[in-house]
Write a structure and sequence with these properties.
329 residues; alpha/beta; Rossmann fold; eight-stranded mixed sheet; 31% helix
Length: 329
C-alpha cells in the first residue's frame, strides 16, 4: 500500500535582509532536503531542539509557506498548482492544531462559529455546519449547551485547545498535524488532551503528525519518531527501537537528557555541550560534527546520507555506513 503522505526533498530557505553593498544575500536554511513517509493510521512524532525545523516542516506540509524545492504527495496525488490535488482539496484532507490555543481562535467569534467556519467556507449550509460543530464539541468532551456561545477569553487553556482540535476535525480530515499542541498545558490537563487525541484517532480513523519537544509525550503517543537537527533528518524509525537503542550520536544525547525517576541513575554530566551552529552558515559535511565526540575528517568533507537499515530505521551517520572512511564504520 502507498503511504498516506509522502514527502521528498522538502527544502525551505528564508532570505535575510542585507545591506546595499552586500552582493551575497544570506539565507536561513530552516529545512534542507527532508524526506519521509506517513502511513495511514499511524502517528509520526517529530522531535529536536528549538530551531531544528520542526514547525517549519509542518507549515510547509500545510502550504502555509511556499517550499523552495521538494514534492508533497497525499494519498498518491501530488499537491500543487496543476498537479492533481489543489491546496483547497488538501485542506479538506489535512488540518493543523497550533501551539498557541488563544491566538489560533478569533476572539470575536463564539466557539460554535469558530468550529463551523471551515465547513461554511467549503460550501456546507449553516444549519448543517452548526450541527456538526455541536457534535464535535460533544466529541472533545465539552457540553454544547454550555460552551457553544462562549468566547475564547472565557475558556481555560485546555478548553481552548479542545476547541482547536474540534475545529481541525470540522472538515473531516484524514491527517492531523499537531504542532506542540500540549506543550502550553499543565501536566494534568496535558494528560487529558493526550487521552482525548488517542480516543479521537480511533473514533475518526485519523493519522497524526505529532511535533513536540517533550520526549516522554512523543514516546507515549507515537508509532514512529523522526529526529531533526539543524534542518536535517538524522534518524527515523519505530519509537520503541529508537528510545531503547538510539544509533545517531545526537539522538543518544537527546534521549540522555530525559530526567530519570530512579535516583540511582542521575545525570552527572551534560549529554551534549555547546549550542547548535548558525543555520545561516551551517557546518560542511555532517551538521552535527561540531558537537559530536566521534567526528573525524570524513564528517567534515562528506554529508552523510539517510540510509535505511535492516531494523526498519534510517540513520544519517558515517559510523553506520560501511566503507564511509570513518574508523568506527
Amino acid at each position: 500500500m502507498s503511504p498516506l503522505l509522502a514527502v521528498k526533498g522538502l527544502t525551505k530557505h528564508f532570505p535575510l535582509r542585507s545591506g546595499l553593498l552586500s552582493r551575497a544575500k544570506p539565507v536561513v536554511q530552516a529545512v534542507d532536503d527532508v524526506s519521509f513517509e506517513v502511513d495511514a493510521g499511524e502517528t509520526l512524532g517529530i522531535v529536536g531542539e528549538s530551531g531544528c525545523g520542526k514547525s517549519t516542516t509542518a507549515r510547509l506540509l500545510m502550504h502555509l509557506a511556499p517550499a523552495d524545492r521538494g514534492t508533497i504527495a497525499f494519498d498518491g496525488s501530488l499537491v500543487g498548482a496543476g498537479e492533481g490535488l489543489s491546496r483547497r482539496d488538501l485542506h479538506r484532507q489535512m488540518q493543523m492544531v497550533f501551539q498557541d490555543s488563544y491566538a489560533s481562535l478569533n476572539p470575536r467569534l463564539p466557539v460554535s462559529m469558530s468550529i463551523a467556519f471551515g465547513p461554511l467556507v467549503h460550501g456546507l449550509g449553516k444549519p448543517a455546519a452548526l450541527a456538526r460543530a455541536m457534535d464535535l464539541l460533544q466529541a472533545v468532551g465539552l457540553d454544547p449547551l454550555s460552551f457553544a456561545n462562549r468566547y475564547p477569553h472565557e475558556l481555560s487553556g485546555g478548553q481552548r485547545q479542545r476547541i482547536n482540535v474540534a475545529r481541525a476535525l470540522a472538515l473531516q480530515p484524514r491527517l492531523l498535524i499537531l504542532d506542540e499542541a500540549v506543550s502550553a498545558l499543565d501536566k494534568s490537563i496535558e494528560a487529558q488532551v493526550l487521552n482525548l487525541l488517542l480516543d479521537l484517532k480511533e473514533r475518526f480513523d485519523l493519522t497524526y503528525i505529532f511535533i513536540s519537544h517533550d520526549l516522554n509525550v512523543v514516546r507515549f503517543i507515537s508509532d514512529r519518531v523522526m529526529v531533526m537537527y539543524l534542518g536535517k533528518v538524522v534518524e527515523l524509525g519505530p519509537v520503541d527501537r529508537i528510545y531503547r537503542e538510539p544509533k545517531h550520536p545526537y539522538t543518544h544525547a537527546l534521549l540522555s537528557a530525559i530526567p530519570s525517576m530512579d535516583p540511582r541513575h542521575r545525570t552527572t554530566e551534560a549529554p551534549l555541550s555547546g549550542d547548535p551552529p548558525n543555520p545561516i552558515n551551517p557546518p560542511s559535511g555532517c551538521r552535527f560534527r561540531t558537537r559530536c565526540p566521534f567526528a573525524e575528517p570524513v564528517c567534515e568533507e562528506v554529508p552523510p546520507a539517510l540510509q535505511m537499515g535492516e531494523d526498519g530505521r534510517a540513520v544519517a551517520c558515517h559510523m553506520l555506513m560501511p566503507g564511509s572512511g570513518h574508523s568506527r564504520a
